[in-house]
Amino acid sequence: MRLVLGDITKIKADAIVNAASSDLRPCPGICEAIFAAADTEKLRAACRAIGRCRIGHAVVTPAFGLPAKYIIHVAGAGWYGGLRRERMLLAQCYLHALRKAAIYHCKSVAVPLIFSGDCHIPRADSIRIAGAAILQFEAERPGMDISLVLYRPGVYDMACRILGLSGGR
Q1: How far apart are alpha carbons 117 and 27 in whole angstroms?
Q2: What's the rounded Cα separation, in Å, for the pair 47 and 119?
Q3: What average pLDDT does the structure give for the chain?
Q4: Computed from CA positions of residues 48, 51, 54, 57, in that sequence, does the dihedral angle turn out positive or negative?
Q5: How far apart are CA 25 and CA 112, in angstroms?
Q6: CA distances for 61 relative to 13, 43, 48, 105, 132, angstroms
Q7: I need a labelling partner for 23 at 20 to 30 A (CA). Which of 68, 73, 89, 169 fits?
Q8: Tally of CB atoms within 10 A around 24
């Protein structure tokens, strides 16, 4: 795993991960940015054809004009103070996304810090969960190039400290 400060929509990888809603419609944040950077209408149509994604699970669409081949959409839970298995569901999102990438023979995956911040799991917890899930996947299936892509410099610096890694600024 490596840390990258950047915009997930500009990362060249076999797949990028999207923090989606369970109905796969664009929602604020990473999801909205991915829909805006891709061919929006084609991505909407592909998501409508799939229909839904269960919380903690992942579905795949083509990337429709992004520098990736695929978008792996994961549906996460909101934040209820940690009382409704939110942390476990977040870890499942990362693991299911990476396992989908392996099924699609991806050699490189760019993963944003999903479902963290104001209305979701606190960022420090999210960083720890992301790091642990990615390391667990790497232990199960070594060889995939996995980048944790962080959009804001402050969050990137926090991730470097928490995970004890340096990345690609």
Answers
A1: 14
A2: 24
A3: 92
A4: negative
A5: 18
A6: 14, 8, 11, 14, 26
A7: 68
A8: 23
Residue 44, number of CB atoms within 10 A of its CB: 17
- With a threshold of 0.90, does the pTM exceed it? yes
- Please name the residue that has the structure tokens 């839970």: 77
- Any idea what the Cα angle at residue 56 is, between residues 137 and 113, rounded to 5°? 65
Q: What is the DSSP letter of 59?
A: E
**Residue 163 scores a pLDDT above 90:** yes
Q: What is the pLDDT of residues 81-124, one digit of tens each?
A: 655 678 898 999 999 999 999 999 999 999 999 988 656 788 99
d(CA 121, CA 71): 23
Cα 66 to chain centroid distance, Å, stands at 15
Q: Which two tokens stand for residue 17?
A: 């991960």
Token pair 């944003």 is found at: 112
pLDDT by residue (tens digit) across 75-91?
987 665 655 678 898 99
Tokens of 103: 């099924």
Read off the DSSP letter of residue 71. Answer: E
Token couple for 77: 């839970």
